[in-house]
Structure formats: C-alpha cells, structure tokens
Amino acid sequence: MPRHPRLHSPPVGSQAVTLEVDIGLQLGTLELDVQFEAQPGELLAVLGPNGAGKSTVLRCIAGLLPVDRGCIRVDGETVDDPRASVLVPAERRSTGVVFQDYLLFDHLSALDNVAFGLRARGADKRHARRVATEWLERTGMADHAGHRPRALSGGQAQRIALARALATDPRVLLLDEPLAALDAGARATMRRDLRRHLGSFEGMALLVTHDPVDAYALADRVVVLEHGRVVQLGTLADVTAHPRSRYVAELVGLNLVHGSLLGSVLATSSGATIVTADHDADDGDAFVSIRPQAVSLHRQRPEGSARNAWHLVVRDVDMRQDRVRVALDGDLPIVAEITTAALAELDLRPGAAVWATVKATDITAYGS
To answer: Are residues 186 and 283 in the same domain?
Structure first.
C-alpha cells in the first residue's frame, strides 16, 4: 500500500538540545531497528558493512524516507512520529545533507548551487547569494563561483556540496560517505577541510563512512550498524578496545572469538579453548580479542608448556609490504601476522598444517 504523508503538529515547550533517533523501518529485505542520540557540537561516525542500513538511517533523519515506527526529534521537536501523525517534510527540517555523489545541479553555477537551499527555504535571491558568497570564501571556492559542476574537480565539487549544506545553518548535518569518490591525496586534503569547518559547527553531525581513518580523524563517537541494528556505540577507543562483532574486529585489525568463559578459560562452540591471564571478566558469554601480531606460527608443535596451542590449516597468505597476514582455519579460525622472513622460513602455503600459539598475557577477555 502507498504511504500517506502525515501532517505536522508543532511541538509544545520542549527545550532539549539533541538529535534523538529511534527508527523502525522495513525496506525490502532490510529491517531497521536503530536507536541512538547525538549531542550539539558532536560528530558521530556511522560505520558498518554494505547493506547494514547506514545511508537509509540518514535518509530517514533528512526526511527523504518516513519511518514505519519510532520517532526522530531535533532539539526536542518531533519531525517524524507515525503514532502522533507527525511528518515534517525534508525542506522544513533543519537538516543539511552532503551526498556521496554531491548531487549538484548541472545547470546552476557554484554560487547558485550553494544558494539553492536558502532559496528553497524562502530567502530572497540577494540574501541567498550573499550568504552563498560567504560560504564560497570560507571553503576556498570564491574563484569558482561562476563555474558549473562539470568544470569542477571531485574535491572542488565536494567543497561546494559542503558549503550548500552549511549555508542553511542546519542543526543536523548529514555526510553520506562524502570522501568516497576522491583519490587518496584529495581525501587527505578534504579530511583536513572537514575537520576545520566542523570544528565550529554547533549542531549535530553524522558521518557515514567505510574508512576507519575518517572516524579516527573526525569523529567524537562511532555507532556501528550491522543487519539494521546497532551493535556498538561509544568512543572509538572503547569500540576498538572491546569489539563485539567480527566486522568491528576486522575493521580494527583484531581477532575476535566468542564463547563461554569460566574462570580464565574460554570455550568456543567448535570445541577450542583459550586460556587468558585476564581475571576481570565475569563467567558466562564472553569475547576474547587477540592481536594478529601476537600469534606465533610453527611447523611442529612447540616444546614446553604453551597453554594456547592450536593445530590449524593455512587458508590464505596475504603479503603486505614487509608483513604477511596468514588466515588460518580449524577449530579456532584466526589471523596471524608474521614477517616475510618468517614466511620464507616456514614455507607456508594454502593447505599447509601449522601450530599457532598465543601467550595468555596477550589475550583480552570481556563480557558479551
């Protein structure tokens, strides 16, 4: 059935200053059930694999897609709530959006592209062009005011798109992978520009990205989505120290193993056991994280009393400059990182049998 637009009823007397997101939405095979908040002056990076629902969340906040259930509030004003029959149209929300492909209007100059949002909100042409000119100067694009989008480089188009989003003085700024289309050099420059411009932004900013470098460089906190759900939310330091999904662990370069912890021993569903020296985690469902650099490989079972030794099979060997990542299969699928010299000495190839060992002191355990 087609969705009918809901009428907007102005909120009464709320003084909250935050972005509150509670989205329930069925979109094809994707079922979103996402909750989080963002504070003024904060940039929240939204991470997750393809198909996790990251861009869909931004579209809901922007008003481009109504939610089926839940509620979205900006500074205490409800902008989408099916139960209250509230749906504020996108053009009436205090929201600026920078899309991955920028979506600049080919028939308009850079100046008129930046002025477009203000004109759409009812500003007269003179005022809109004056504000747009100020933003072109702030983003270093004043010399390109009369240029059409086809005459701009990717980095220049990105600056125009950012200026257009910020010119309306939004309370919420949504950045949907704004650096993805740029080459490495332009990405680094644009990342610095974003950090400078967002440093004085007083509203709430959300950045969808696949690149953890963007999160490290720009974000105050991160929210990680998988299969339409929030799997982790917190500072990047918290998320990387205690990953709670394989995606997050791989993103930060860690091995993540789930199992049942009893004392200092974690038992996995495949029958492997891992001994830790960490006694702070409670018994029960738990994770352990292992740095690939902490995994030692041997052709023969090492002598001595290694408490963590597993007989595994090499699945893949990935050369990375002077380091090699070795993916291992068996009761404990993990990744080891060794030197090229060690690779040559061990003569490792896919299908080779190896022993992997890890010191208990190199393993971190925490509750699930």
So the answer is: no
* Domain limits for position 300: 253-367
- Asked if residue 191 and residue 80 are part of one domain, the reply reads yes
Please, which residues bridge with residue 224 across strands? 47, 232
Identify whether 7 is part of a domain. no
Q: What is the DSSP string of 121-180?
A: TT--HHHHHHHHHHHHHHTT-GGGTT--GGGS-HHHHHHHHHHHHHHT--SEEEEESTTT
- Looking at residue 102, what is its pLDDT? 77
> Residue 305's pLDDT is what?
63
2 against 129, higher pLDDT: 129
CA–CA separation, 111 and 314 (whole Å): 57
Distance CA 63, CA 97 (A): 11
User: DSSP letter string over 167-228?
Assistant: HT--SEEEEESTTTTS-HHHHHHHHHHHHHHHTT--SEEEEE-S-HHHHHHH-SEEEEEETT
Domain identity same for 210 and 302: no
pLDDT tier at 16, thresholds 50, 70, 90:
very low
CA distance 289 to 98: 36
What does the pLDDT read at residue 24? 97
- Give CA–CA dist 148/130, Å, rounded: 18
What phi, psi does 55 have (nearest 5°)? Answer: -70, -30
Q: Whole-model pTM?
A: 0.77
